[in-house]
Protein backbone atom coordinates (compact mmCIF):
# COMPACT_ATOMS: atom_id res chain seq x y z
CA UNK A 1 0.00 0.00 0.00
CA UNK A 2 1.25 3.48 -0.90
CA UNK A 3 0.30 7.01 0.12
CA UNK A 4 0.29 9.52 -2.76
CA UNK A 5 0.78 13.12 -1.60
CA UNK A 6 -0.43 15.93 -3.86
CA UNK A 7 -0.95 18.99 -1.64
CA UNK A 8 -0.04 20.40 1.77
CA UNK A 9 -2.01 23.09 3.69
CA UNK A 10 0.38 23.32 6.68
CA UNK A 11 4.12 22.76 7.17
CA UNK A 12 5.84 22.89 10.58
CA UNK A 13 3.06 25.03 12.00
CA UNK A 14 2.98 27.48 9.07
CA UNK A 15 -0.32 28.07 7.28
CA UNK A 16 0.10 27.65 3.51
CA UNK A 17 -3.58 27.79 2.58
CA UNK A 18 -3.33 31.26 1.00
CA UNK A 19 -0.49 30.18 -1.31
CA UNK A 20 -1.07 29.00 -4.88
CA UNK A 21 -1.21 25.24 -5.45
CA UNK A 22 2.11 25.07 -7.32
CA UNK A 23 3.83 26.97 -4.50
CA UNK A 24 2.39 24.53 -1.96
CA UNK A 25 3.58 21.59 -4.07
CA UNK A 26 7.11 23.07 -4.18
CA UNK A 27 7.00 23.37 -0.39
CA UNK A 28 5.80 19.76 -0.14
CA UNK A 29 8.69 18.59 -2.32
CA UNK A 30 11.26 20.50 -0.23
CA UNK A 31 10.00 19.27 3.15
CA UNK A 32 9.13 15.63 2.47
CA UNK A 33 11.35 12.63 1.85
CA UNK A 34 9.56 10.54 -0.75
CA UNK A 35 10.48 6.96 0.04
CA UNK A 36 7.96 4.11 0.11
CA UNK A 37 5.21 4.14 1.16
CA UNK A 38 5.15 7.93 0.47
CA UNK A 39 4.95 8.84 -3.22
CA UNK A 40 4.95 12.15 -5.08
CA UNK A 41 2.01 13.12 -7.30
CA UNK A 42 3.06 15.35 -10.23
CA UNK A 43 0.96 18.21 -11.56
CA UNK A 44 -0.18 17.85 -15.18
CA UNK A 45 -0.98 21.21 -16.78
CA UNK A 46 -3.21 21.25 -19.86
CA UNK A 47 -3.20 17.47 -20.39
CA UNK A 48 -5.95 16.55 -17.96
CA UNK A 49 -8.05 14.43 -20.32
CA UNK A 50 -5.11 12.29 -21.39
CA UNK A 51 -3.86 11.98 -17.80
CA UNK A 52 -7.30 10.92 -16.58
CA UNK A 53 -7.56 8.30 -19.33
CA UNK A 54 -4.16 6.88 -18.37
CA UNK A 55 -5.12 6.76 -14.70
CA UNK A 56 -8.30 4.80 -15.51
CA UNK A 57 -6.35 2.38 -17.71
CA UNK A 58 -3.96 1.85 -14.79
CA UNK A 59 -6.86 0.90 -12.53
CA UNK A 60 -6.91 4.05 -10.40
CA UNK A 61 -10.12 5.25 -8.77
CA UNK A 62 -9.89 8.61 -10.55
CA UNK A 63 -8.08 11.95 -10.70
CA UNK A 64 -8.23 15.31 -8.96
CA UNK A 65 -8.19 18.62 -10.81
CA UNK A 66 -6.97 21.75 -9.01
CA UNK A 67 -6.29 25.25 -10.29
CA UNK A 68 -2.53 25.92 -10.46
CA UNK A 69 -2.88 29.35 -8.85
CA UNK A 70 -5.74 28.48 -6.48
CA UNK A 71 -5.49 28.90 -2.72
CA UNK A 72 -6.31 25.91 -0.52
CA UNK A 73 -10.01 25.60 0.31
CA UNK A 74 -11.56 23.21 2.82
CA UNK A 75 -14.66 22.72 0.65
CA UNK A 76 -15.30 21.62 -2.93
CA UNK A 77 -15.14 24.40 -5.51
CA UNK A 78 -14.58 24.98 -9.24
CA UNK A 79 -10.85 24.89 -8.43
CA UNK A 80 -11.08 21.43 -6.81
CA UNK A 81 -12.82 18.75 -8.84
CA UNK A 82 -12.79 14.96 -8.66
CA UNK A 83 -13.20 12.82 -11.78
CA UNK A 84 -14.04 9.18 -11.12
CA UNK A 85 -13.09 6.31 -13.42
CA UNK A 86 -16.19 4.36 -14.46
CA UNK A 87 -16.48 0.88 -15.96
CA UNK A 88 -19.58 -0.88 -17.30
CA UNK A 89 -20.71 -4.48 -17.00
CA UNK A 90 -23.75 -6.46 -18.12
CA UNK A 91 -25.35 -8.37 -15.24
CA UNK A 92 -28.35 -10.63 -14.66
CA UNK A 93 -31.10 -9.67 -12.22
CA UNK A 94 -31.68 -12.39 -9.62
CA UNK A 95 -33.84 -10.47 -7.17
CA UNK A 96 -34.90 -7.09 -5.85
CA UNK A 97 -35.79 -5.37 -2.60
CA UNK A 98 -38.93 -3.45 -1.75
CA UNK A 99 -38.78 0.37 -1.83
CA UNK A 100 -38.59 2.55 1.27
CA UNK A 101 -39.76 6.09 1.90
CA UNK A 102 -41.24 7.89 -1.09
CA UNK A 103 -39.43 5.78 -3.67
CA UNK A 104 -41.83 3.90 -5.98
CA UNK A 105 -41.86 0.30 -7.25
CA UNK A 106 -38.57 -1.21 -6.02
CA UNK A 107 -35.56 -0.51 -3.85
CA UNK A 108 -32.50 -2.17 -5.37
CA UNK A 109 -31.67 -4.90 -7.87
CA UNK A 110 -29.63 -7.93 -6.82
CA UNK A 111 -27.42 -8.82 -9.77
CA UNK A 112 -24.86 -11.41 -10.78
CA UNK A 113 -22.94 -13.07 -13.61
CA UNK A 114 -22.37 -16.62 -14.81
CA UNK A 115 -19.21 -18.50 -13.89
CA UNK A 116 -18.70 -22.25 -14.36
CA UNK A 117 -22.39 -22.92 -14.61
CA UNK A 118 -23.31 -20.89 -11.51
CA UNK A 119 -24.86 -17.45 -11.06
CA UNK A 120 -22.40 -15.51 -8.89
CA UNK A 121 -23.77 -12.64 -6.81
CA UNK A 122 -22.13 -9.28 -7.65
CA UNK A 123 -24.01 -6.85 -5.42
CA UNK A 124 -27.02 -4.54 -5.16
CA UNK A 125 -27.76 -1.72 -7.59
CA UNK A 126 -29.87 1.04 -6.04
CA UNK A 127 -29.07 4.18 -8.04
CA UNK A 128 -29.40 5.37 -11.63
CA UNK A 129 -33.15 4.84 -11.95
CA UNK A 130 -35.91 7.27 -12.78
CA UNK A 131 -39.55 6.67 -11.85
CA UNK A 132 -40.38 5.31 -15.29
CA UNK A 133 -37.59 2.70 -15.19
CA UNK A 134 -38.46 1.71 -11.61
CA UNK A 135 -42.09 1.03 -12.46
CA UNK A 136 -41.24 -0.70 -15.74
CA UNK A 137 -38.74 -3.01 -14.06
CA UNK A 138 -41.12 -3.86 -11.24
CA UNK A 139 -43.86 -4.80 -13.67
CA UNK A 140 -41.56 -7.18 -15.53
CA UNK A 141 -39.93 -8.61 -12.40
CA UNK A 142 -43.27 -9.42 -10.78
CA UNK A 143 -43.96 -11.79 -13.67
CA UNK A 144 -40.66 -13.61 -13.06
CA UNK A 145 -40.99 -14.13 -9.31
CA UNK A 146 -39.85 -17.43 -7.76
CA UNK A 147 -39.61 -18.82 -4.22
CA UNK A 148 -35.86 -19.39 -3.90
CA UNK A 149 -32.81 -17.39 -4.90
CA UNK A 150 -31.00 -18.18 -8.18
CA UNK A 151 -27.51 -17.31 -6.90
CA UNK A 152 -24.96 -20.01 -6.09
CA UNK A 153 -24.53 -18.45 -2.64
CA UNK A 154 -27.50 -16.58 -1.22
CA UNK A 155 -26.56 -12.97 -0.43
CA UNK A 156 -27.26 -11.31 2.89
CA UNK A 157 -30.19 -8.99 2.26
CA UNK A 158 -33.50 -8.25 3.91
CA UNK A 159 -36.93 -8.67 2.31
CA UNK A 160 -35.68 -9.89 -1.04
CA UNK A 161 -38.07 -10.92 -3.82
CA UNK A 162 -36.35 -13.57 -5.93
CA UNK A 163 -36.86 -13.77 -9.69
CA UNK A 164 -35.94 -16.01 -12.58
CA UNK A 165 -32.59 -14.75 -13.97
CA UNK A 166 -33.87 -13.71 -17.39
CA UNK A 167 -33.35 -9.94 -17.49
CA UNK A 168 -29.97 -8.39 -18.27
CA UNK A 169 -29.02 -4.87 -17.21
CA UNK A 170 -26.06 -2.63 -17.94
CA UNK A 171 -24.40 -1.30 -14.78
CA UNK A 172 -21.76 1.43 -14.38
CA UNK A 173 -19.38 1.09 -11.43
CA UNK A 174 -15.97 2.26 -10.24
CA UNK A 175 -14.26 -1.07 -9.49
CA UNK A 176 -14.60 -4.61 -8.19
CA UNK A 177 -13.99 -5.02 -4.46
CA UNK A 178 -11.65 -7.68 -3.12
CA UNK A 179 -14.61 -9.94 -2.33
CA UNK A 180 -15.96 -9.69 -5.88
CA UNK A 181 -18.68 -7.07 -5.45
CA UNK A 182 -19.41 -3.91 -7.43
CA UNK A 183 -18.30 -0.61 -5.90
CA UNK A 184 -20.64 2.37 -6.47
CA UNK A 185 -22.89 0.61 -9.02
CA UNK A 186 -25.44 2.60 -11.02
CA UNK A 187 -28.19 1.29 -13.30
CA UNK A 188 -27.75 2.24 -16.97
CA UNK A 189 -30.61 0.37 -18.62
CA UNK A 190 -31.93 -2.99 -19.80
CA UNK A 191 -30.03 -5.03 -22.39
CA UNK A 192 -32.80 -6.65 -24.38
CA UNK A 193 -30.26 -7.88 -26.95
CA UNK A 194 -28.20 -9.86 -24.43
CA UNK A 195 -28.80 -13.54 -23.60
CA UNK A 196 -28.58 -13.99 -19.80
CA UNK A 197 -26.58 -17.20 -20.31
CA UNK A 198 -23.83 -15.17 -22.04
CA UNK A 199 -23.31 -12.75 -19.13
CA UNK A 200 -19.88 -13.27 -17.56
CA UNK A 201 -17.56 -11.01 -15.59
CA UNK A 202 -15.78 -8.88 -18.18
CA UNK A 203 -14.04 -6.08 -16.27
CA UNK A 204 -11.23 -6.53 -13.74
UniProtKB/TrEMBL annotation:
It is an enzyme of class 6 (ligase). Residues 103-194 form the DNA ligase ATP-dependent C-terminal domain. Its EC number is 6.5.1.1. CDD domains: OBF_DNA_ligase_LigD. One of its GO terms (molecular function) is DNA ligase (ATP) activity. Residues 190-204 have a biased composition (Basic and acidic residues). Residues 185-204 are annotated as: Disordered. It comes from the Bacteria. GO terms for biological process: DNA recombination; DNA repair. This is DNA ligase (ATP). It comes from Actinopolyspora mortivallis.
